[in-house]
Amino acid sequence: MVRAPCCEKMGLKRGPWTAEEDMTLVAHIEQHGHSNWRALPKQAGLLRCGKSCRLRWINYLRPDIKRGNFTSDEEEAIIQVHAMLGNRWSTIAARLPGRTDNEIKNVWHTHLKKRLESSSKPSGQAAPKRKAKKPAVAASALEGPTSEPASSSPGQSLSTSSATGYSMASSLENTGSSSSEEFQIDDSFWSETLAMSADSSGSGMESSDTFGVDSGAPSSSNDEMDFWVTLFMQASDIQSLSQI
DNA sequence: AACAGCTTCAACCGCCCAGTC
DNA sequence: TGACTGGGCGGTTGAAGCTGT
User: Fold this and answer.
1) What InterPro entries does its record include (predicted)?
2) Which of A73, A235, A45 is nearest to A169 (CA)?
């Protein structure tokens, strides 16, 4: 089967988006929506392929995007869900309102993965050479309504302070672990968790929307995912209770 | 001050899957 | 039923910025 290339390369622009292109794209989507990504750039007069437009919109221009550093709660959530699901970035992103899969992926590879790796090593060789530093680069490029000045200050660690006012659901806040503590799954976790899941099965588990997110995804395909996420969150509650 | 090395992140690539004809 | 299309996802890349020497 001959598959057409995702977009004709000829004459299409690549690379960083200009503010003008951003404005054009946003204006077009606000006016017409994005029912057809492939046709969109032509309709909007953009010399970009549809995929590129989609990516730009999803990862950067969407009005509900939350920019700026990740809160420690968000980081914890990523670590925890990643521990269960692996590199299911879109699924993880669905649990973090305003965050994109791409952003989460980047944070994972640049911060969290190293953090976990270093924590698993013998103490002493852990810390990255440098502290996290700059504000989000591109956020400053786009003076959009949702771009907020990255709240980082020199020397700010990767467990970012949040100026967003956003906080994760209390289930995470109650885990009793500070942001610097690493999440670990031990045997007691699974025994407690599985026991609990047996109890709760069929008895109306809490909404799968543990983070207060409406992922918008049809439940059928995400049932399994939701199950594990919910399971995990409940287990977190168990652990926090046991620490009281 | 200049340079090299490192880090970050926006953007691209290619594959897969679901929907449509 | 199979071909085809469009959208979505995860992995990777490379330019820009930052830090250390």
Assistant:
1) Homeodomain-like_sf, Myb_dom, Myb_TF_plants, SANT/Myb
2) A73
- Output the distance from A5 CA to C6 C1' rounded to whole Å: 12
| Rg, Å, chain A Cα set | 21
Q: Where are the domains of chain A?
A: 19-61, 72-243
Calculate mean pLDDT across residues A102-126.
70
pLDDT at position A133: 38
Flag residues 48-77 of A with CB < 7 Å from strand C.
50-51, 54
Q: Supply A200's token pair.
A: 């709760």
| Any strand B atom closer than 7 Å to A156 CB | no
Closest CA to A179 of A164, A158, A163, A153: A158
Q: What is the pLDDT of residue A231?
A: 57
The string of DSSP letters for A184-243 reads ---HHHHHHHHHHHHHHTTS-PPPS-TTS------HHHHHHHHHHHHHHHHHHHHHHHHH
**CB of A17 lies under 7 Å from some atom of strand B:** yes
Listed residue (A132, A193, A186) closest to A158, CA to CA: A132
